[in-house]
Design goal:
The protein is 63% helix and 0% strand. It contains three helices and no strands.
């Protein structure tokens, strides 16, 4: 594949430097894999014990980081006023 073909890859982010584009695509792909793992675990197709301990630690660390970020961005108090 030539450089001009590299820039026209489907799903690419125009205007990003190649190293940043690859990082953005990697982050998106990691999220897809996390969602896939969640779906397989929820259906019982995959068991938590099937995952290597190191992979499970990383998955849990990402889930906790996402939850902390979600909590930090939750600026609206949903509690009733009365």
């Amino acid at each position: 594949m030539t450089n001009s073909q590299d820039q026209s890859v489907e799903g690419s982010s125009p205007g990003l430097a190649p190293e940043h584009e690859l990082s953005a695509l990697d982050a998106d792909f990691v999220r897809v894999l996390e969602d896939l793992l969640d779906a397989l675990l929820a259906k019982g197709t995959l068991l938590v014990t099937d995952l290597p301990p190191h992979a499970l630690e990383k998955l849990q660390a990402r889930k906790q980081a996402r939850q902390r970020l979600k909590n930090a961005l939750d600026l609206i108090d949903d509690a009733p006023l009365i």
